[in-house]
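User: As part of a screening pipeline, I want to sanity-check one entry by hand. Below is the sequence and the SMILES for pyridoxal-5'-phosphate. Please return the complex as structure tokens so I can compare it with the automated output.
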Amino acid sequence: MDIKKFIRPELVTMNCYVPIEPAEVLSQRAKLPSSKVIKLDGNENPYGCSPKIYQALAAYRFYHNYPDPEQRELRKALEKYTGLDRQHIICGMGSDELIDLILRLFLEPGDEVINCPPTFGMYPFSTDLCGGRVVDVPRTEDFALDTVGIREALTKRTKVIFVASPNNPTGNTTTEKEIMELVGIGKIVVVDEAYFEFSNVTMANLVPKYTNLIVLRTFSKWAGLAGLRIGYGFFPIGIAGYLMKIKQPYNANTAAQAAVIASLADIEYLRANVARIVMERERLFGKLKEVGWLKPYPSQGNFVLCSLPAGKAEEIWQQLRKKGIFVRYFDTPRLKDCLRISVGRPEYTDALVKALKEVKYD
Ligand SMILES: Cc1ncc(COP(=O)(O)O)c(C=O)c1O
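Assistant: Here is the complex for your manual check:
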């Protein structure tokens, strides 16, 4: 029996999202003990999560019960953290789940989603999965949005426009003026602020004023909770009700909820780590510039994109891997001569820069 005949044809041919691998797999690949692996490929937090989380998870007594489908405690805590009324807030299993849910809510088969590459790969992935059509409007030479190009790409079938700010992997933010211009078009505008805490640039306060602006956030990066999968978004009231209706009722698990509450109770600790990462980002940027043959782009996230001599990025990425240093390589036309390096601890920067100085290429 040919099982493919049963599978939605567009999923048979759909492009895969290329995910990163966990540290234990990388250590096997590099044949190095995990203590020797320098993982700078996932924009993860090199300082981990708040230590208070270990106590909170050990003390929690209700793992046998389903979590609150209305996420009441969590949304209350997020209201306090963000200053936005809890009726605008919904949590998801990472912001990845919220991207998927937004598209499930708005897309009918063949509806269009504006994607501005180079950018986060889950927007096209989830669009494809939801039966939508990705319309790419590439960023300009300096990675700014091409707002004229976006306007030109609009059709009756355009439903959603995604903008990551700071953008992954380029690190730049989008201005309020540009976002307002997009909101004025009258489609759904999703501003993905996964790296907000490293940039302090946000559009969140605008959400209650518009019916079509969504802002997404996550605990994966600044709070070191990537493994627990918890993110949230600010939604206009008119959208929030429908998202609550269509989300899986128990999507935010109890461990993640307890971890968020404990993180927000230990906010000074987490903010100090964010400040260390921001400082290290600037040091990393300077050191990368000193290497001579790399061009790092200024970043407001916890990563730095670098462009390399033409045709050399993949080979240099492999050489770094052999030394146990894992950075991100994207095999796409616009990024094939680039590497994205997550900001790690200062000693990781030093090891990376030493390795880069030893790199061999003709
Ligand atoms: C721009 C952007 N949005 C969302 C995510 C996913 O975040 P989460 O871990 O909350 O699903 C990432 C992760 O790399 C990202 O770079």
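Points to compare against the pipeline: The pocket of pyridoxal-5'-phosphate is lined by residues 43, 94-96, 120, 164, 168, 192, 194, 218, 220, 226, 231 (CB under 6 Å). The chain has a mean pLDDT of 96.
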